[in-house]
Amino acid sequence: MNRAGFIRNSLLATGAVVGGNSLYAQGDRTINGQDNKPFNLNYGPHQGQFENHAGKNILDQIQFAYDHGFRGIEDNGFSGRSVEEQEKIGKLLAKLGMEMGVFVLNKGGNGANTLTEGKQEYVDIFLKGCHQAVELAKRCGGKFTTVVPGDFTRKIPLDIQTANVIEALRRGAEILEPHGIVMVLEPLSDTPDLFLRTSTQTYLICKGVNSPSCKILYDVYHMQRNEGDLIANIDRCWDEIAYFQTGDNPGRREPTTGEINYKNLFKHIYDKGYRGVVGMEHGKSMAGKEGEMKLIAAYREVDNFLQ
User: Fold this and answer.
1) What's 252's DSSP letter?
2) Counting Cβ atoms within 10 Å, is residue 21 exposed (0-12), middle (13-18) or buried (19+)?
3) Distance from CA of residue 59 to its chain's centroid?
4) What pLDDT sits at residue 231?
5) Which of 94, 153, 252, 283 could form a disulfide with 10 if both were Cys (CB 3.0 to 4.6 A apart)?
6) Regions of the chain with pLDDT less than 70
């Protein structure tokens, strides 16, 4: 997927810049009388999901999310922000005790500079992104960076493509591992051209890399589309899964808008011990403040799994 375009269009974001007038009213910290206590799982909103209440300033959006029970965020485009803005985000997260989820490792795009080809210049671009990720993580306090290896190289046998990917990821892990940073590999459903498709394929690659710095990003939306059997596949791949993202299917909007039983799924990963960020990488089913209220209410509903 085109992540920047997805966040911009589906979430109605416009690209916040730190500074300017704050539109967040300090007294506006309740939504429709909802309980604002922390959630059982650590859901991480994206920029733009609360901009109708909080305004376009990313810091105000983070504060708004905190005031409504969220204790994490995601920022796919973090690498494209200025250093000053990155540092301000990191400081606010630290002050609030919030966790940064994933930011995308800069390799030129999901399908671009594919590691399946084994081409040195593409590997070098990826390794440069790994070095950059170390510096980005220092500024935001995060430790997860999303990696999509790239498109298939159809002229090369599949097993050779897999070996090329494993070899490149091993070299990336050598850069990230001393800093405790984890690249999380994301199998996607956006186009059949993308090499990484299923959780079990990604599991095999992680086993081949054999590093604590190379794990699976299990995006429930994409995996429902590509393979289904969600809970069983989560269990099969559990020891290599380091991160989750959400989005209901069809439509890629908040939980309760589609076919996925998120309440059961969240209870399952909670019972298995997952306490990391659950990234809210999806759109909203309604626009405006009403849509933001509906999004928060949906997460309260599916998070109510301990009773």
Assistant:
1) T
2) exposed
3) 19
4) 98
5) 283
6) 1-34
pLDDT of residue 307: 76
Q: Using alpha carbons, list the distances in angstroms from residue 40 to 24, 136, 264.
A: 26, 28, 13
Catalytic-labelled residue, pool 74, 85, 117, 281: 281
Query: What gap in Å lies between CA 16 and CA 5, rounded to an integer?
Result: 14
Please tell me whether residue 100 adopts helix, strand or coil conformation: strand
Q: Rounded to whole angstroms, how far apart are CA atoms 53 and 267? A: 29
pTM, two decimals, is 0.90
Tell me which of 51, 74, 99, 186 is the catalytic residue: 186
Count CA atoms within 13 Å of residue 299 on its CB side: 31
186 catalytic residue (yes or no): yes
What sign for the dihedral angle of Cα 251, 64, 106, 18?
A: positive
What is the fold, at CATH topology level, of the domain defined by 74-262?
TIM Barrel (3.20.20)
Residue 286: which residues within 8 A CB-CB, separation 6 or more? 294
